[in-house]
Input
Amino acid sequence: MTLSIDRGADGKISIIRCTEGEVHIHPLSDHKRRVELRPSQPDTYIPQRSVETAYSDDLITASLEVSGFMWLCSNIARDEDGSGLEKDLTIGLFSFVPKEKFRGCRLLDFGCGSGSSSSILARLLPDTEIVGVELNASLLRLANAKIEFHGLRNVRFEASPSGTELPQNLGSFDFILLSAVYEHLLPKERDETMPLVWSVLRPGGILFVNQTPHRYFPIDLHSSGLPLVNYLPDRLAHKAVVRFSKWSTINKSRVWEEHLRGGLRGGTEADILRKVSKGNNGRPTLLEPCIPGVKDRVDLWYWRLSSRHRPIKRAAWLLLKAVYFMTGSVVTPNVAVAIQKN
Output
């Protein structure tokens, strides 16, 4: 990525220019700055156009080079905005296992990307050893820059030798997390990687899978934004996404595998359980939430909703309850499960 940089009188970056547009950086009080994206094409899809951050110039620039222009603010917010990823991780983990149970344990953040999830976990769990594993070396360079910026000492990163291998001498873990990872694995990788990940989980340990779109939710809210595309055969789904979706340049690809890599086909609880069971290395058991008054994962979904449009949401809760009792699946936008190894 070719960048052109303007600096203010204080020597700090004020504007970063690239092919897709301009990144404007405005100073704020309390040692923070506002990062604002101004695309060259006004109709460019950008999930988040501004963010407040304490990031240094170097870290903002590194994030831009790794995440790209469109996703810069989203990438920064994942690391610093407690209402986003941090909230999802807190609910995804501590709704099933009390926070104090993680003390003195080892947690594998598989597919850690640029390290936002690992960094947040290290801050939430200072007495837990966090190990992030990622295949993309450029993402790991940014991940290491983030933990250095935050001054974290209980987290480290390892590079995977391939998409179906783990780093050598990784050891075993009490907890393993796949956060927004499973949907990006190709079908063959799911078959090979999930038993491998499961094999390094200690007996009695827990595998968390969250922020993965449900394969059969009526609207694909992850990749295309299209209704009913999850129910179409692969060939028809491919044509529909290329023709109608405007969410990402990936959606215009003529290569079906690129859509799968982008996360078009999510997962289900049953699918994940089948994958980890292939290794015959401990029986997987789905856990229910440990929050008082929350009986199952449907209740957990309803519990975390805002109070807006409560009657509609309660009707959806009743429908999901019926589906859950008949199929064992919670058909909400995202899968959020904790699976214990027995």
Observations:
- The chain has two domains: 4-80, 85-215+266-291+333-341.
- The CA atoms of residues 203 and 300 lie 26 Å apart.
- The two ends are 48 Å apart (CA to CA).
- The longest helix spans residues 310-327.
